[in-house]
Amino acid sequence: MNLRVLPDYEALSAAAADAVAAKLREKPEATFLIPTGTTPLGMYRRLVAMHRDGLSFLQAAFFNLDEYLGLDPEHPASYHVYMRENFYGLIDADPTRVHVPDGAAADPDAECERYEAMIRKCGGVDLCVLGIGRNGHIGFNEPGASFDSRTRVVRLAETTRLVNASDFAGDRAPEKAITVGMRTIFESREVLMLASGANKARTVEAAVEGGITDRVPASMLKQHENTTFLVDRDAATTV
Ligand code: PGA
Questions:
Q1: Among 13, 39, 128, 200, which residue has the most ligand 1 atoms within 8 Å of its CB, making it the best to mutate?
Q2: Which of 27, 59, 66, 169 is the most exposed place for a label (fewest CB within 10 A)?
Q3: Does ligand 1 have an atom closer than 6 angstroms to the CB of 238?
Q4: For residues 144 and 213, what is the distance between their CA atoms, to the nearest angstrom?
């Protein structure tokens, strides 16, 4: 695992966007597994700007890490809408190669299997970009998630439901979600984990300096041979 500390959020976002663009130039048909949340917004903004300057995403395949269970793809808090508004709708991605788990699927378990099979069909993941939750989750693999897990329905941690509550009318995010599994993330040829801000410092410290444990799912990435933690200075104060 490499740790790269950038001076601030803008530099972090630029480094992440450059990594995606470099992969795309090396392999235009690459498969990407990518996150939602506040952290990657700067990266997406830069990638959209690069697209305006000529970078094409047309041949690439994109998979999102997760989606809330029970949310219609048109729900304003869905990751379908987030991705359309912040990335997919602003670039030349091929709609047939853009994938977000369907949280409204009639048979969620079948949807998970379909999603996993689709990733395989696209040749596996070339570059996985991840955020990290304050509890160390990656995707919605919450503490306790098995190293061997695949795309599946999970129950969200209460802390996650509270942190993400502001996107919803009630006081909590939905109870469940579909997430790509730990094993699926691990099979990515390259992983880039992004963390920004002082409120992630203790989590980053636990992931980087603590033992490898399913209590901090991101710590398991230390076993992945091609993983970089891209962290801004505020999130790196204790490492
Ligand atoms: P954030 O979410 O980027 O909004 O902090 C990260 C995550 O929960 O994975």
A1: 39
A2: 169
A3: no
A4: 9
Reported as a single tens digit per residue, the pLDDT across 35-94 is 999 999 999 999 999 999 999 999 999 999 999 999 999 999 999 999 999 999 999 999
Tokens 């942190």 found at: 163
Does ligand 1 come within 6 angstroms of the Cβ of 226? no
Query: Which of 33, 28, 184 has the alpha carbon at shortest distance from 117?
Result: 184
- The response to whether residue 133 sits with its C-beta less than 6 Å from ligand 1 reads yes
Three-class SS of residue 100?
coil
Work out the end-to-end distance of the chain between its first and last CA atoms, rounded to an integer number of angstroms: 14
DSSP type of residue 125: -
| pLDDT value of residue 171 | 82
Is the CB of residue 64 less than 8 Å from the CB of residue 101? yes
- Using the predicted structure, report yes or no on whether residue 223 has a pLDDT greater than 90: yes
Residues 6+ away with beta carbon under 8 Å from 125 = 31, 32, 33, 63, 119, 184, 185, 187, 188, 189
Please give the average per-residue pLDDT across 97-118, as a whole number.
98
Measured between alpha carbons, how far is 79 from 143 in angstroms, rounded to an integer? 22
Contact 108, 153 (CB under 8 A): yes
Helix (H, G, I), strand (E, B) or coil at 31: strand
Residue 127: half-sphere exposure toward Cβ, Cα within 13 Å: 23
